[in-house]
UniProtKB/TrEMBL annotation:
Name of the protein this chain belongs to: Catalase
3'-histidyl-3-tyrosine (His-Tyr) crosslink residues: H336-Y359
Ranges of compositional bias, category Basic and acidic residues: 1-22
Reaction it catalyzes: 2 H2O2 = O2 + 2 H2O
Sequence segments annotated as region (Disordered): 1-32, 507-529
One MF term in the entry's GO annotations: catalase activity
EC number(s) from the headed UniProt entry: 1.11.1.6
Sequence similarity: Belongs to the catalase family. HPII subfamily.
Organism: Alkalicoccus halolimnae
């Protein structure tokens, strides 16, 4: 049996090295006797060219950087595995979707889109959600986003979109933000973006955690079964913890307090054994139903409402191991929507078709040549044989003189496999048409689903959308662009445009509005799973706390999977009135209210005004972000501000067990929007 019961981890281990405890050598294996002083002509003399150790060390350093990804530069990844719940044989012959007892290794990379590699993670942006399945039939990459639609319909517009979204070229401002003139100018002049812009201005674009966001394959793909029958399919990842977001004020502050907030959250959850889980869902559509909808299923600016085409949950992915080395794994992993396995095929979505070109092309410059598939993270777990040879960094030593097909010297091998032997056969879709540069009329409705999205939002979600438009357009300088956007989004909803027009100094349009009344409850995060598991709670506490009460509450919280962190004025231990001790995890200097899901105000440090003030500020901020707040008997004094103690989601009183139960319920609720916040 393999050491890790995971063939990818076994494979990676062959390439893993541990330098600890070893003698320092050059890359040629020569032991080095001195690593602090270059070789000089005399103690105060110039460095000598012959110092090969210095030259090698410096040269390697000088070449350490590779170009960051042109989009999705900032990302974070982890290993895991995937298991299907039941055989999907009826729809697809994909080997990894057949046997529920089989675990397929996966590597998943999450990312923001617009920012550079070092940018803050709480940008308002789509998130990438790329999964590499290391199957026995080769690598299958599901390269998705956390938003089910895209800005554009045809890949030829992607460079324009990205140029408009990225920092403006003359001054490289702003970083990791769509709140600037060129992005909104692009939107106004490419109105197919309307639907995705609605998502990008919604809470979806500021997730609470990579562990709490959905993933979507976006395009329509095909499942093809053994008999060659094809169904259209859309892929979904559903996080077991539900889909949750922060609010914009927090997002901006988190970017300052902890720009690594999302990666740290993922890293720590995995280190603590709180393995992130996502269920794989598919929407399956018969070929004959292709034209039965009021949208074109090949149009990537459209989603398939889950109420009309249900999401069938077919398996689960668990992320259970952090990387050993960020660069070797996360930075060098190369995803490609064209990495498919038998049983999964493409549709004619023009956005997908263009992606099928772009992903290999971009790796050639990013990873420096055509052998990037040999990098440990990119290698399939099954063997691979062909007549491709040479190129920068080639590692494989292909034996023998034959590197061509057909041949007789090697018995015509490596030879193509028949379909029965696992050879990939493209679905034989019948196509015909004139060569034209045009777009189908069925792609021309840009607003109905944008309105569907708006209609599906809860009151707070609508308010957040209005605030996001107000913020973003508030940062736009061009009056004309702002006016175009107001006019454009009046086609989606005049409630929306009324909501933000005034705040950007424009008149709400009188015309417009939409006749779409349909909504899709699945789109609202109000209807998501609510769980206290892995939620973080700041325990604000000082010496002299009520030991019995606090210890009971903390034990209950941990039992429910909540992660409490003790926050006090100084590190070290604090003592309760009963002599019990607590280790302080963080101080008011090292953390901030915005970094937690909830607050448990315990108090202590009687008479210490500075402590009281810091607690009060911390709690007040959590309150204004609609977060659950629990208070001990003593901590109640901290709730006097703003009449907090009469507000929803503020919990206190009762026996400690009873209090803990109510507080845990509140933590699961995530936010309390019905709070009056001044
Ligand atoms: Fe990508 N995209 N994309 N994209 N994309 C890249 O490939 C591209 C699109 C997505 O974690 C690049 O390796 C084109 C949709 C993710 O490493 C590049 C078009 C969706 C990632 C590229 C799209 C995505 C990328 C840059 C329009 C959601 C990060 C680096 C036709 C379904 C992958 C790289 C990772 C990365 C091209 C549109 C998702 C340049 C041309 C739609 C998650 O090849």
């Amino acid at each position: 049996m393999s050491k890790n019961e995971n063939s990818k981890k076994d494979q990676l281990e062959q390439f893993t090295t541990d330098d600890r405890g070893q003698k320092l050598t050059t890359n040629q294996g020569l032991k080095v006797s001195e690593d602090e002083f270059s070789l000089k002509a005399g103690e105060r003399g110039p460095t000598l060219l012959e110092d090969f150790h210095f030259r090698e060390k410096m040269t390697h350093f000088d070449h350490e950087r590779i170009p960051e990804r042109v989009v999705h530069a900032r990302g974070f990844a982890a290993h895991g595995e995937f298991q299907v719940y039941e055989s999907m044989k009826e729809y697809t012959k994909a080997g990894f979707l057949q046997d529920p007892s089989k675990k397929t290794p996966v590597f998943v990379r999450f990312s923001t889109v617009a920012g550079s590699r070092g940018s803050g993670e709480l940008a308002r942006d789509a998130r990438g959600f790329s999964t590499k399945f290391y199957t026995e039939e080769g690598n299958y990459d599901l390269v998705g986003n956390n938003i089910p639609v895209f800005f554009i319909q045809d890949a030829i517009k992607f460079p324009d979109l990205v140029h408009a979204l990225k920092p403006e070229p003359h001054n490289e401002i702003p970083q990791a933000a769509s709140a600037h003139d060129t992005f909104w100018d692009f939107v106004a002049n490419n109105q197919e973006a309307a639907h995705m812009v609605m998502w990008a201005m919604s809470d979806r674009a500021i997730p609470r955690s990579f562990r709490m966001m959905e993933g979507f394959g976006v395009h329509t793909f095909r499942f093809v079964n053994e008999a060659g029958k094809s169904h259209f399919v859309k892929f979904h990842w559903k996080p077991v913890l539900g889909t949750h977001s922060v609010i914009w004020d927090e997002a901006q502050k988190i970017n300052g307090k902890d720009p690594d907030f999302h990666r740290l959250d993922l890293w720590q959850s995995i280190e603590n054994g709180n393995y992130p889980e996502y269920e794989l869902g598919v929407q399956i559509l018969k070929e004959e139903d292709e034209f039965n909808f009021d949208f074109d299923i090949l149009d990537a600016t459209k989603l398939w409402p889950e109420e009309e085409i249900p999401v069938k949950i077919i398996g689960k992915m668990t992320l259970n191991q952090n990387v050993e080395n960020y660069f070797a794994e996360t930075e060098q992993v190369a995803f490609h929507p064209g990495h498919v396995v038998p049983g999964i095929d493409f549709s004619n979505d023009p956005l997908l078709q263009g992606r099928l070109f772009s992903y290999t092309d971009t790796q050639l410059i990013r990873l420096g040549g055509p052998n990037f598939h040999e990098l440990p993270i990119n290698r399939p777990v099954c063997p691979f044989f062909n007549n491709q040879r040479d190129g920068y960094g080639r590692q494989t030593i292909n034996r023998g003189p034959v590197a061509y097909h057909k041949n007789s010297l090697a018995n015509n091998t490596p030879e193509p496999a028949s379909e029965a032997e696992g050879g990939y056969k493209h679905y034989e879709e019948r196509v015909e048409g004139h060569k034209i540069r045009a777009r189908s009329d069925s792609f021309k409705d840009h607003f109905s689903q944008a309105t569907l999205f708006w209609n599906s939002m809860s009151r707070p979600e609508k308010e957040h959308l209005i605030e996001a438009f107000s913020f973003e357009l508030g940062k736009v300088g061009s009056e004309s662009v702002k006016q175009q956007i107001v006019d454009m989004f009046a086609n989606v909803s005049t409630d929306l445009t009324k909501g933000f027009a005034e705040s950007i100094g424009l008149e709400a349009p009188q015309h417009g509005g939409s006749s779409v009344t349909k909504s899709s409850p699945a789109l609202s995060q109000e209807n998501t799973v609510k769980s206290p598991a892995t939620r973080t709670v700041a325990v604000l506490i000082g010496n002299g706390f009520n030991g019995e009460e606090v210890n009971t509450v903390l034990a209950q919280l941990k039992k429910a999977g909540v992660v409490p962190e003790v926050v006090s004025e100084t590190k070290g231990k604090i003592k309760g009135s009963d002599g019990s001790e607590l280790e302080v995890d963080q101080t008011f200097l090292t953390v901030d209210s915005v970094l937690y899901d909830a607050v448990y105000a315990v108090g202590g440090n009687e008479g210490n005004k500075s402590f009281f003030k810091k607690c009060a500020l911390f709690i007040h901020e959590a309150f204004s972000h609609f977060k659950p707040i629990g208070a001990s008997e003593e901590g109640r004094a901290l709730l006097n501000l703003d009449n907090m103690d009469n507000s929803p989601g503020v919990v206190y009183g009762g026996a400690p067990e009873d209090f803990a139960k109510r507080f845990i319920d509140a933590v699961a609720e995530h936010r309390f929007w019905d709070r009056e916040v001044e």
